[in-house]
Amino acid sequence: MTSTAVVNRYASALVDVVVSSTAGIDAALAVQQLRQFAAAIHSSPDLRTVLASPAVSIARKRLVIRRIAAALQVERIILNFLLVLNDHRRAEALAQVIESFEILLDERRGFVRAEVVSANELTAEQRDMLSAELAKLAGSQVRMRFAVDPELIGGVTARLGSRVYDGSVRGRLTVMRQRLTVN
User: Fold this and answer.
1) Domain boundaries for CATH 1.10.520 within the chain
2) pLDDT over threshold 70, residue 99
3) What secondary structure, in 3-state letters, does the chain show?
4) What percent of the chain has pLDDT above 70?
5) Cα–Cα distance for residue pair 20/26, rounded to 1 Å
């Protein structure tokens, strides 16, 4: 596993390139193409083995990356970045780099990330209302990620940066249990 510092260095360098005025690629397209490439690798155990194996030369790995990128019509900037990861033997960190890239990109654009978990799937109206409330709390635009966890019983939890807002039934029951056992 590649260290967080190394992952962040690669992600930060890619953000610098993508947001520059000369990049010629939209940030959303860059994210999409990175995800597509990672999905293509993840879907094939043989590809994962080839790219992870120290027995396969860097030149051969470069050829494989170029062919996959061509099939996916990946922009030159993204291809070059993938080749740099390969050349520095960091291809196994691609998923981590993509995650860090998205976070750093959001920060540069003035977005705060929010992870929302609900007991049931939220409607579009509920998502919009929750997004507006979290934006007020954050004082900036919020990029939302939603997940469902039936164990919450009801309600939602939201993580906004390092703060957690727990409006779930499970959370309320935990607080009640703590209060009852203290007395």
Assistant:
1) 4-107
2) yes
3) CCCHHHHHHHHHHHHHHHHCCCCCCCHHHHHHHHHHHHHHHHCCHHHHHHHHCCCCCHHHHHHHHHHHHHHHCCCHHHHHHHHHHHHCCCHHHHHHHHHHHHHHHHHHCCEEEEEEEECCCCCHHHHHHHHHHHHHHHCCEEEEEEEECHHHCCCEEEEECCEEEECCHHHHHHHHHHHHHHC
4) 99
5) 10
Topology, domain 4-107: Peroxidase; domain 1 (1.10.520)
Let me know: does 90 contact 2? Beta carbons within 8 Å. Answer: yes
How sure is the predictor about 124, in pLDDT bands with cuts at 50, 70 and 90? very high
Long-range contacts of 134-143 (CB under 8 A, 24+ apart): 134/158, 134/160, 137/165, 138/112, 138/114, 140/110, 140/111, 140/112, 141/110, 141/111, 141/112, 142/111, 142/112, 142/113, 142/114, 143/106, 143/111, 143/112, 143/113, 143/114
